[in-house]
Amino acid sequence: MKVHELFVLLQTQIESWLFGMFAKFTRHKLIVIGILLLAVGLMWLVVRSLPATEEDLRRSTCFVEGKSYLCLASGKDTVVLKADNIRQQGVWINRHWWWPSCDGRVLTIDNGINPIHRNHLENPDTLKKLVAEGTDSLGRLLERKQVERKELIYYLRSHGVIDEGYTQIATYANAQRIETDSLASRYRKLTAMKSIKSLRLFRKGVYQVSWYDNGGKLKHVSCKPIFTPLDNTGQPIILHTQRSLKPWGVYAVRNVPWGVARHKKIIVVALSATNKLTDHHAILITGDYERGHNHDVPSLFAVDGSPVFSQHGRFLGIVAGKEVRQ
Hints:
By secondary structure, the protein is α+β, with helices and mostly antiparallel strands. The chain is built from 5 helices and 12 strands. It has helices at 3-27, 29-48, 54-60, 124-158, 164-193; strands at residues 61-74, 77-92, 105-109, 200-212, 218-222, 226-229, 236-240, 263-271, 282-290, 307-310, 315-320, 323-325. α4 runs antiparallel to α5 (164-193). 24% of the residues are buried.
C-alpha cells in the first residue's frame, strides 16, 4: 500500500474517533459539565478554607480611633451628654467564609461611656437623675463660657490696634462663640427633657480605621456612624467604611463553620506605630487560651479588638478585656 493511501486511512480513523468522542460528549455533556463545575467548586472551597499565613495575620489588623458619644434622645431631639476618646484595634472580616465579601467591614469591640449599670437601664428614676446631673453640669460649663465670651468681646472692642495678636484672639473668640452657641442649644434641649418621661440612652460611634500598607505607610479611611445600645458595652460590633471597599493589600479573615480545638495555643496580633522592624508594624504574641476562660496575653499587647488566631492560623475572635469574642 502506498504511503499516500496509508496517510488517508490514518486521517479517516482519527476523524472517526474524534467524531465518536464528540458524539459521546454531546450525549453526556450535562454530566461532564456538572462534574467539572463540582470539581471547580470543591477546589474553590478548599482554597477558601485554608488557614491564614503569617503574612496574612500581619495584614489583617488595623487601628480603630475616634469618639464614642453618650446620647439622650426624646422623639426627634437628641442631646450629646458626654464624649469619650477611643483608640483600639480591629480586624478586616468577610461576611461569608466561602466568598470574598469584606466590603470594608471591620470587626471590633463596642467601648465607651456607660454611666448606668446594666440592671438600671430601664429605670425611669435613674434616667431622670442622669438628666438632672447632665443639665446642672452643662449649665455650669455654659456660664463659664459666657463669661469668657464677654471678656473676649470687651477686649476686641477696646483694643485699638489690629496686629497679629489681635487676629489670633479674634480667631479664638470666633471659635468660642460657636462652641458657646452649641452648648446653649444643648442646654435648652436638655432642660426641656427634664419633664419628659419617654427617654432613651444610646451611644453614637464616629470612627476611622488606619492600617500600614506594604511600604509601611499609614493609611486612613472614615467609617459610617454606628449607633448601639448601652447594654452592648464590651460586645463585638461591625464597622463599615465610607467606601464599602476592602483596601488594597489588607487581609480579611474568615469564620469557618467547623471551628477549632477547645484548648489551644493562640496568636494575638498587635499593631505598634513605633515598631518598624516587622512588616505592617505588626507584632505576633503567643499565649494560651481555653474556651470559656481568660487568655494569658499581657494587656499591653492584647488591646481590645486585636485579632486572635490559633497556632495554625485559624481565626478565633477578637480580644475583649481578658476574653476572646466573635
